[in-house]
Amino acid sequence: MTAPVPEFPAGFLWGVSASAFQIEGSPTADGRGPSSWDAFTREQGRIKDGSHAEVATDHYRRYREDVALMSELGVDAYRFSVSWSRVLPDGHGQFNRAGLDFYDRLVDELCAAGIAPVPTLFHWDTPLALEERGGWLERDTAERFAAYASVVAERLADRIPMWITINEPAEVTLLGYGLGEHAPGKELVFDALPAAHHQLLAHGLGVQALRAAGARQIGIAASHSPVWTAGDSDEDRAAAELYDTLTNRLFADPILTGAYPDGLDSLLPGPVAEDLKTISAPLDWYGVNYYNPMLVGAPTPAGASAFGGIEIPSGLPFAIREIEGYERTDFDWPVVPDGLRELLGTLRERYGDRLPPLYITENGCSYGDGPDSGTGRVEDARRIAYHDGHVRALHQAMAEGADVRGYFIWSILDNFEWAEGYRQRFGLVHVDYETLARTPKESYAWYRDLIKSGR
């Protein structure tokens, strides 16, 4: 048994998360077009277990069952994503009414259950027709995104209390265009930087489009990690500072300050100074996705380094080092709850009064616990310990001055975990991928009790 969690403020929002490609399945059921991830999963060797997401957890057909699980859990909000290619099969042009109808039904189901719908407009699944024309390397994709945001908002804005434009532009840039580990599988290294700028521009144009359509409470979900320096040398400190710039400040600075970190403007395409005015349009809140710190030092003679099964190529001016002395998830990520407190303090110090209210839009862990053969229970004590530690760290950060308004667990369901396929399980609810049966885990009961006690 864990000690009672400290009391959170009245109105603090407790939520769960998921994304369209990872859970929906039914890729063509209503006329959805293919996405970059559909193409990526068909390439030999891209997905580690050789799987695909054509069924995933079948949320497209089972969404009522999944909303009922959320209702029983007692969450205030569900953060989901809209499949861009389900709404606009080619990424632009005529919208797909049947695809929009699905999200209409989902939003109505959530509202009827008293759960706030919190849609993310882009969670990595670029329409393939746009990807084949260059994807996020092309400025046109940002403009197409704004038109898509308008279509979705015009249908749903009357029932949506919070919006997220884009999820983790850093991962799309670094893993999708820089290292080739995610869709679209390009290995451009530093030549991937235009993808960062165009996603940020899409965010800014999307904010404009959403507000024009009557949307309210608009934010972004950005991944952030504390960056720890691996050694005491000037080389180690410079390497860690560069990594922090490329993974944290490159994405937060333009949004929150209207400027890129020194020296990066010249590496980015287009009228950057004018674009920054759009990118830095005031937000109602800022979303933080946190999983673990990163330990970074100068490159070593050994060359390549790795983190979480992703190889960092040699020749870069930094190297990822192993964080030792902490428990690890099944994804081999270190469990460092206090890193969340540290991160929120760094954001406050770095951005001051330019930092809007915060939401923790993702925090979660992968553990492979399954149903007991005798009782059918999924006893995932490690997941409970993980979230208990992070919620306590969050509470401490708030006591130190962080203005955090809510916390979303990643994720409600086990799902298709991108390049890992079905090998990693992040859910509060276990999914049998053969029968698609849902089994709430012990962590589900723990979160339900936490929410209830908080109210």
Automatic annotation (TrEMBL):
Q: Which GO terms describe its biological process?
A: cellulose catabolic process
Tell me which residues this entry annotates as catalytic: E168, E362
Source domain of life is Bacteria
Which residues does the annotation say bind substrate? Q22, H123, N167, Y291, W410, E417, W418
GO CC annotation: what is one? cytosol
Q: What class of enzyme is it?
A: hydrolase
| Listed Pfam families | Glyco_hydro_1 (PF00232)
Catalytic activity from the UniProt record: Hydrolysis of terminal, non-reducing beta-D-glucosyl residues with release of beta-D-glucose
Q: Which UniProt keywords apply?
A: Carbohydrate metabolism, Cellulose degradation, Glycosidase, Hydrolase, Polysaccharide degradation
Q: Show which residues constitute the signal peptide.
A: none
Tell me which EC number(s) this protein carries.
Answer: 3.2.1.21
Give the GO molecular function terms: beta-glucosidase activity
The family assignment reads:
Belongs to the glycosyl hydrolase 1 family.
Fetch the NCBIfam families from UniProt.
Answer: BGL
- This chain belongs to the protein called Beta-glucosidase
Q: Give the species.
A: Streptomyces gardneri
Q: Taxonomic classification, please?
A: Bacteria, Bacillati, Actinomycetota, Actinomycetes, Kitasatosporales
